[in-house]
Fold this protein.
Amino acid sequence: MDYVQQNTAELQPVFYTTGKIGDSITKRVYNIPELHEKSLLLSKHGWLRLFSVMASSNSSLYFVHLFTGSKIYLPCLGISSLERPIFAITAPPTSEDCVIFIVSCIEDKVGNDCAKIKFCHRRQSAWSTGIISVEDYRISDVDNLVFAGGFFYCLHQGGHLSAFSVSGHSWTVCRSDRWLGIERCS
């Protein structure tokens, strides 16, 4: 890939939908045409997870490695129908152990706050979907999502924590008075 380099002093390191990456240290902007009009959803293990909406209302979801130009396409997913989705992966997308995870908070038909999760193992052709609701517990929007020790940990607005087990496909809510001193939700 050939990158066009521009010098400018006022830009900060921001990902632009115009396909430009700014570097505040060198004061350079790199124009990367392959990223034009794409949304950056995740950056991890040297890979970018990008989303592109086509004119036909189909969407393209894929990983791209900026240094090699390699692309890994994922099954089709209606991302625009998710409200404030947060993304994470378990391993580099080239790994057979890679699981892609998305969480979005929704309201169910009777007005309860729920979490909508989607996950896909590497090389699967479809997404698994689940709606998580916890009785007498309000699941608020997720601010941060991280994978560790077989769990996707969700830090919600208000500071509460929940976890999704990759192997058990189960959801656990950690009460704030319990999770501060423990390694994992139980």
